[in-house]
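Study both lines:
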Amino acid sequence: MKLAYIVNINIGDKTARSVQVEANSKSFYKSLGNDFKLHSVAHGNLPFAKSVYVFKQRIEKSRIRRVVFHSIVGFRMLFMDRNTVIYSRNLSVLAIATVLKFSVVWEIHDSISIINKRMLNVV
C-alpha cells in the first residue's frame, strides 16, 4: 500500500497542527518507507516530503493560497499510482481525490460545517 498525506500547512511551524502532522508523518514513514509521501506547503526538510508550493509571505488563509494548493495537488494526483491511499485533514483534498477514484481517509479536526456537509456527499 502507498500512502500520500496531503495537508495545506507549513511543516516546521511551531503550531500544534504542524507538530502533529510532522510526528504522524515520521511514524508513517517508519512503517511504510518509500511508499509514504507527505505533500505540504513547506516541508521542513523532511526526506519523505514534497512541497506543494512554498509561499514567501504568510498568507495562511487566503483564497490565493487555497486555489494554488488545490490546483497543484489535483494536478499531482493525476500522475499518482491509483493504488495510493490519500490521507488528509482537508476534506476538499479528499473530494478531489474521490473524483479521481482514489481511496481516501479523512483525519477530522474541523466541525462539520455547511461546506463540509456538501463535500461529504461527494466523498
